[in-house]
């Protein structure tokens, strides 16, 4: 379940309380008159099932409470209550299958924001990938996969397309279009410095036969990207973040970028182009899979709501 906390102007409190009392999937309703100081108003709290959360949030935002008051919602790890059990039974669907769109857009917006931290993680991941290629170390390449933050913007594009949030899709695209070139330039400069100083003695990038899967783009590159993207989006919509680690080490986005940079510094442009194609295939596959999962979720939710209605 999710805990809902709303600051309501005093003159609207009774109406909001009546709405929450009658709403499906809402329980543990508590009202504290005059408890809120800034912004001033009544504090209304309730626990809401995941299946009903979006409808409740839509109703509250439609009344403009996010402008005149405040709306917050957070997950509850443990709930021991017969009333909560009844609320879960009354709400159609299963909690794990429910998408809380307000939560999803908020989470992906944060992960898709171009920031110093995002750029730092992406650059470090590309550097790790380059080291993995130079040393022919699959373990280092896997480390680069885990460190890379690129799934956030890719998921943001998918959510933006399905939710018709152009701002979210644009923010995510900007993060990728600025982040990857910058990280690759820094990695390229580091690789050139290593070659000039004699630290890097690699003359043929394809000699690293333990990591050559990175640039070998093919049908299964797209298949893996689609499967990983679907798993990643499912983990986001169901709030099961543990599955994301598996997603990170399934696709060769950051490793492909690192491989392309090392190949380019050695003048192996054909290999660099293949690596860049691998990067593009993986990103497109992840976005398409994310869009597909969200569309399927939305279609199932609408069909279930129609049956209940």
Automatic annotation (TrEMBL):
Keyword Transit peptide: no
A Pfam entry, by short name: DUF389
Chain ranges passing through the membrane: 112-135, 141-161, 173-193, 213-237, 244-270, 276-297
Keywords per UniProt: Membrane, Transmembrane, Transmembrane helix
Highest taxon of source: Bacteria
PANTHER family: AT15442P-RELATED
UniProt name for this protein: Hydrophobic domain-containing protein
UniProt lineage: Bacteria, Bacillati, Actinomycetota, Actinomycetes, Mycobacteriales
